[in-house]
Structures
1.
Amino acid sequence: MDLHETTAEVAHRVRRHVVDMCAGPEGGHLGGSLSSVDILVALYFGVLRVDPTDFAAPDRDHFLLSKGHAAIALYATLAERGFFPVAELAGYGTSSGRLMGHPVRAVPGVELPTGSLGHGLALGLGFALSARLARADRRSFVLLGDGELQEGACWEAALGAAAQRADNLVAVVDRNGLQLTGRTEHITGLEPLADKWRAFGWAVREVDGHDRDALRAALGSAPWEPGRPSALIARTVKGNGLPFAAGRVGSHYALLSARMAAKARAALDEHPDGDR
């Protein structure tokens, strides 16, 4: 089986895990988790230098989920990658489990707790600069939500990264166009988003955020320009793979009933590679 088929199967399982966790006692952030699944799978199954058996290895690449509300997608990806047993996902949101609504360091593979939006890029820059001081070739990857870019701290970190010529830093924007209360362009417009990143001194590319081959090619080849941090704008669909959730603001958070969870699983099984 080739790598593309393997990642397609992994992404399908990750989406099913997301649905299962959203059918748990606390529900979960369904839409933004599903929009980021292919990005996470591309990273963990083709780009990141990580070892599930030694997740604190000093030469590892660093990944930060700045959009921490998509934790269930990260948990599912980490479990599929072997950081902890897949069976542990069933404990999400329970008092006896360690999988919380936002990432915590108790979970193997999670570098730092995140979810206070706007902070992840600065933390990722810190990891990138520490690698430079250690004369190490490790890279730092940060996944941001597009609504998160309304936070000024993101752009302060972007300016700082460019000023420091941190070309081992890669920002990935999950550009699904939606946030909790509506469309990003109706709340605080971001476009022309690629030009904004370029104006802040970054090398920029855009890609279909559900095309894992394109994601792997772009992310794996960073840095794209010497002396410039890299920003990848991944065009995605919130709620990808579920017809009743795709592109809908209401998919932001969901507590799925047994009936809706069954409907969601059936939709995923009918189109196992999402909306691609």
2.
Amino acid sequence: MGGSAALKERENMNCRIAEGMVNKYIDHTLPLSDLEDFLEHIEKCSSCYDELATYFIVHKAMQQLDEKQEDTVLDFKELLEEDIRKSRRYIRKKKFHRAIAAVAVCVLIVALVVFLVFVILELKEGI
């Protein structure tokens, strides 16, 4: 998807799009930009949050049954909230790493320009 198309879709996040992302969120396979938009949407839309909670609870309950932990009682709502907090930390971490990479590239470009200016000045003095 092109940059402008992705931006337009993010601006138009609606319940239909968010509901289509629920399973990918639970499976932790949403791309970073979609993850951020999805979390923003469910924070504002109680209907989509409830949809996520329902699927999340079913997923965790099935996981618990598969692992034969029938006697363990889990607070599924708290597990969902912790998962959302982890997702937000992941987003912040990725944004920080991208910012550091951008700063490193800028520093590298400036150093290269300074080096080239120095080389050009040295060449002119040698002439």
